[in-house]
Amino acid sequence: MADKFTLTLPGDPEVQEPGSIFFVGTATTLIRHRGFTILTDPNFIHAGDHVHLGYGITVPRLTNPAIDIEALPLLDFCVLSHYHGDHWDQVASDKLDKNLPIFSTAHAVRALKLKGFRRLYPLNTWERAVLRRGPERLSLTAMPGKHGPGFLDVALPPVMGSLLEWGEGADRFRLYITGDTLLIDQLQEIPRRFPDIDLMLIHLGGTRLAGVLLTMDAEQGIRAVHLIAPRNVIPIHYNDYPVFKSPLEDFLREVRRAGWESRVHVLRHGDTFTFDRLAREAAAPVAEFSER
Fold first, then answer.
1. Residue 217 banded pLDDT, cuts 50, 70, 90
2. 123, 127, 161, 211: which has the fewest Cβ within 10 Å?
3. Given a cut of 50, is residue 284 above it in pLDDT?
4. How far apart are the first and last CA of the chain?
5. Separation CA 6–CA 173 (nearest Å)
6. In sequence order, which residues have a C-beta less than 8 Å from that of residue 175 and are 6 or more positions away?
7. Which domains does the chain show, CATH number per domain?
8. If 0-12 CB within 10 Å is exposed, 13-18 middle and 19+ buried, where does residue 153 land?
9. In this structure, are residues 253 and 218 in contact, taking their beta carbons and an 8 Å threshold?
10. How far apart are CA 141 and CA 19, in angstroms?
11. So what's the pLDDT on residue 5?
12. What is the CA radius of gyration of the chain?
């Protein structure tokens, strides 16, 4: 696979073991592993503030982020699944460093360029970027995604899932982030190309506008988990806006029916999930099902 972008980051890696996922809220997480610190889908407005979802539609946030944007650590880069207000809000536009590297869709990159961001890297499905810091290497591959059914999809922003991959062979750790996709046929290619995924961050919520499903609900979510078959699953993007119509408990009910309790880890805002880069040696299940 050819690399579309290669970035060399300054400094020596401060390797952190175990790795960690800090859940800020919505689809916003802080991922730290092997010397890299990554922000996903920055959404830092507070409860009662509104975001724009396109075509004159605005919705209020129901929750607060676990931290304010000023409390973020020094970031290496940001991964943005798509350009919607609940994934990139005005706070992010105003307060993130304009030199922060951002990987996203071409549509999102065009929008962010107009807002003054300078280090923008568009990826099409299956294209890959490689980031290096000293001896450490991290690859980011764009995964397929689709935000709406049929003809409606052309009226919605393009969506990118992401696969983050550290190391090679026995040292490899794979993290898959679905982005705001529905369960589409193209997802079947992911386990063929990238088997043995260690951790899956799944965007749920069953988002509906005018009754149309735009993100995975509980039923699609559990089918996606069966398809990808990761060792660990963290649900995100499920309770922050009134357009999220499929509550987390519906997904957890499907998890229990499927017998996946030991692989699914529920994070509330401000919770951290830690993982080891050699988690595959433990084999699933690796931890107790928790609803913290």
1. very high
2. 211
3. no
4. 40
5. 19
6. 31, 33, 163, 164, 165, 197, 198, 199, 200, 201
7. 3-291 (3.60.15.10)
8. middle
9. yes
10. 19
11. 96
12. 18
pLDDT at 141 over 60: yes
Average pLDDT score over residue span 98-125 = 98
Q: Looking at per-residue confidence, does 90 or 290 come out higher?
A: 90
Query: Alpha helix locations (H) across the chain?
Result: 90-95, 106-114, 189-193, 218-228, 248-258
- Show the tokens assigned to 112: 């962010």
Helix (H, G, I), strand (E, B) or coil at 273: strand
Assign residue 154 a region: left if phi > 0, alpha if psi is -120 to 50, beta otherwise? alpha
Place of tokens 């304010």: 68
What are the two backbone dihedrals, phi and then psi, of residue 188, each rounded to the nearest 5 degrees? -65, -20
Average pLDDT (48-67) is 91
**How much is the pLDDT for 276?**
75
Evaluate if residue 287 carries a pLDDT over 70: no
